[in-house]
């Protein structure tokens, strides 16, 4: 089996969250979706499971953090700088908050961070590995 990642996120309004992620370019997999959860697909290896708070509580008794807190930043790669900008614009136009941190433009890498409607932090990033400066490349 191919290695995959399933990011599980508690959401306040499932349909609103589905519309938000669709606007970013995710697609819904209805096989793993119902009125309490939605499987949103970014690639063959990356899936985001949007879970209502009631559904989330069936997996853990830990508290759902306030939207102003941040434990992780989820980064997704984009094809080019324009796709990074488009994702950030779509986030802002669909209930998220764009550019929550300064834009990172290192020439060979370009990244912008935003939140979804529930405050989960995402980073859209583009990188040209062939342009990484000497000394910054892995051995």
From TrEMBL:
Cross-referenced InterPro entries: Glyas_Bleomycin-R_OHBP_Dase, Glyas_Fos-R_dOase_dom, VOC_core
Domain VOC positions: 3-127
UniProt superkingdom: Bacteria
Protein known as: Glyoxalase
Species the sequence originates in: Geothrix oryzae
């Amino acid at each position: 089996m191919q290695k995959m990642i399933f990011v599980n996120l508690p959401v306040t309004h499932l349909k609103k969250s589905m519309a938000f992620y669709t606007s970013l370019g995710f697609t819904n997999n209805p096989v793993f979706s119902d009125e309490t959860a939605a499987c949103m697909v970014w690639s063959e290896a990356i899936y985001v499971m949007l879970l209502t708070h009631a559904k989330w509580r069936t997996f853990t008794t830990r508290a759902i953090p306030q939207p102003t807190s941040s434990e992780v930043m989820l980064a997704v790669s984009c094809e080019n700088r324009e796709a990074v900008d488009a994702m950030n614009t779509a986030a802002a136009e669909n209930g998220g908050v764009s550019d929550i941190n300064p834009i990172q433009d290192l020439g060979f890498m370009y990244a912008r961070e935003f939140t979804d409607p529930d405050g989960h932090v995402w980073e859209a990033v583009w990188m040209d590995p062939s342009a990484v400066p000497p000394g910054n490349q892995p051995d």
